[in-house]
Amino acid sequence: MGRPWTASRHLCLSYRDEDEYRTLLTINLLAALEQGERIIYLSGDVPVDVVHAWLRDTHQGIESLVARGQLLVRQGNGFCEVNGTPGDESVVDLLDRESAVAARAGYTGLRVSVTRTHLPRDDLLGWERLLQHEERFTRLLANGNPAGLTLTCQYDQHLVPEHHLGALRQAHPVALTAEEAARRQPLLRADALPGQRGLRLSGEINRSNLVELSAALESTFRGDDDIHLDLADLHYADVAAVRLLAQTARRLHDGRRFVLHCPGPIISAILRIYGWDRLPALLLSEGKEAEGKERACE
User: Fold this and answer.
1) Which residues contact 246 (CB under 8 A, 6 or more apart)?
2) What residue stretch is flagged as signal peptide (predicted)?
3) Domain range for residue 285?
């Protein structure tokens, strides 16, 4: 299925309005968490407390991420502008140091997302310097420097003339609009069910992300409650993924149940073909979990 775009090391993402900006914010956070990275988010003109509030709408553990240092939000473009001029050697040195800090803390890498709102406007030379800056980072990151760094550059389409935006996009190995990025999010997303022990799975499950699914399921085993999986937004699961669900059901004893809500025709058929639908702890439900209440699958 190819290498996910979020694994690329230098990206150009563009947005048109606040909703698209928030979409990119969420995608950047999820990409960092899925890959075990530390994330530094430079929010441009958006205040830090506003960014935190937006993130709380999509992720319940923002405070813990901030407290342990995995997430740092700063207002401005600080890492990529030194005395108002991008591309200074001290920027590279600073990113190198921050990457080393992330590695020592046990993270797989450092993801820096820069919202570029301090732009040259009508200064042609300024646009040329910015373009050279982006081209330089593409070369550095292609050669593995700084080690473990992923740099995401975000541009407001209303602030960048079309011809300049086109050149900036070409300077990056991967360039996407917010709409394109939203369609190409990481394959699997697992969110806690509010008021219920279990997970809401969305996206796709296959052999490429079984480790992620296994870790997510493991987190639900604490306690004696039934485990619920809401699968209404899961678009695809292969046999290996369904086998993992069956293995999870086999681990439950003492009357605990593994409830699959809205399993859909593919998962239901695989369970039936392999006989896993007859496992004592496994229960298939045609109702979707919503705030602890069941409603019909769509």
Assistant:
1) 271, 274, 276, 279, 282
2) none
3) 188-296
